[in-house]
Specification:
By secondary structure, the protein is an alpha/beta fold. Among the domains are: about 115-280, NADH-ubiquinone oxidoreductase 51kDa subunit (Rossmann fold), CATH 3.40.50.11540; about 375-435, no CATH class. It has helices at about 125-130, 145-155, 175-180, 180-195, 210-220, 240-250, 270-280, 310-315, 360, 375-380, 385-395, 395-400, 415, 425-435; strands at about 25-30, 35-40, 50, 55, 60-65, 75, 80-90, 95-100, 160-165, 200-205, 230, 265-270, 285-295, 300-305, 325-330, 335-340, 350-355. A six-stranded mixed beta sheet has the order 1-14-13-17-15-16, with helices on both faces. Strands 2-8-7-4 form a four-stranded antiparallel beta sheet, with no helix packed on it. Strands 11-10-9-12 form a four-stranded parallel beta sheet, sandwiched between helices. Helix 1 packs antiparallel against helix 2, helix 4 crosses helix 7 (about 270-280) and helix 11 crosses helix 14. The longest helix has 14 residues, at about 180-195. The protein is globular. The chain starts with about 25 loop residues before the first strand and ends in a 19-residue tail after the last helix. The chain binds iron/sulfur cluster (SF4) (2 copies). One iron/sulfur cluster binds near residues 378, 379, 385, 411 and 425.
Amino acid sequence: MTIVRSFPKGGIHPHDDKDRTRDGAIWNSAIPPICIVPLRQHLGPGCERLVEPGSRVTEGMLIGRAPSDGAHVHAPVPGIVRRIRTITVPECGECEAVVIELSGAFSKLGKDLEARDWRSMPRKDVVTLLRDLGVVELSGNPHPLHRSLQFARRAGVSRVVVNGAESGPYLSSEDRLLQEHCAELVTGAEIVAHLLHTDDVVFAIGADKKAAVRSLRRELSKRESLARVLEVGTKYPQSAVPQLLRSVQRKEIPYGKDERELSCFVLGAATAYATAEAVLFGKPCVERVVTVAGGGIARPGNVKVRLGTTFREVIDECGGIVAPSVRIVSGDPLTGFEVTDLETPVTKTTRGILVLTRSEIRAAERRSCISCGRCVRACPMGLEPQRLYKLIEHAQQSKAEAEGLNACTECGCCSHVCPSRIPLMQSIAEAKSEHLLDYGAEPQNPQFGNQA
Ligand code: SF4
Ligand code: SF4
């Protein structure tokens, strides 16, 4: 009997509708005639623009150079820069974007590329490659991967946990990647483990992803790998780092700390895939798999999309909108962002495009708190959301902090279960953003050394 590890407190089982997308193969979206490429596609600083209107760009050419703590941006298609615009990226805010009109030939798309022998490369060169190719964490908080690796190395983490829980409602792109690109994904995890000087790798996979678990076990036994597969619960937010590590390590991350405190590095499944693509084939981060779902879309599925493709193009690719009064969301319905402009482009941070109908949104009038306690029971971090909300409303920020404000992971469980539709998470997230935890100073000596 398989043992499934779940986290003990809080969490919810929202309507997830994954069945409409998880069984179909990933397909390639049509290349758009115009790409709108934001120069900031992750948390952190934006890029310095390297092109002007009229510049000719090739596929994968560097068009935005980031400082050392950022991630570079590359041209997803060959073409001509038509103009520079200011746009708003749902997850990253306002930034400059380069508008590229497609023309010319692709140098990597559709070609058989020879895999690089990464094990013979010095570790610091592999990290430099990840930085040069603009790889960011594609699943959770989108930090540049090279940067996260530097911090993890400095903290001496000894275990890589590949996050394949994907508990966000509707989203199934990582499930599909695990099923269809298992070999690359395992290689990506091996590369990261190698960079962190460890061979302790745990694949934490949602227990609802049976086909993915089978693919992984087959791949690992073929390689005679020591990596383990661990099935974790399906309750939301199982894929959030504190809940994932509670299941894997059976320990809580102490308040104010992160996963490094448990000597772990959490690598998203999609990030493992992007890592392999970058290191093996030198592919810059210019495409990603996006789940397109919701009751309002004609043909839901998982689509590989060139970054810079607009939401409109992706929705058209999936047969268009088939229901009136829909809400478009980037991400998942609990933590995602409403998108009102369909010219918004897909970026490295776009995990899903949801076209939700009125019944899926569960629109209702906001009312007063009835002290039902549901938000408290749903909070996986053991917080009292209604109490935090009241403290924030009364401008008692420091009291809210003393009661755990900064421990909130913004999972959205509290807002989801609240019968009075009080925007608990939104209010807490806003209060938190004024007092962001310091992610740490630039490591002076990233300690990757020259040894292979
Ligand atoms: S959003 Fe924050 S307060 Fe609300 S349930 Fe999640 S962790 Fe708890
Ligand atoms: S779930 Fe909503 S109504 Fe119930 S206690 Fe929490 S805030 Fe109040």
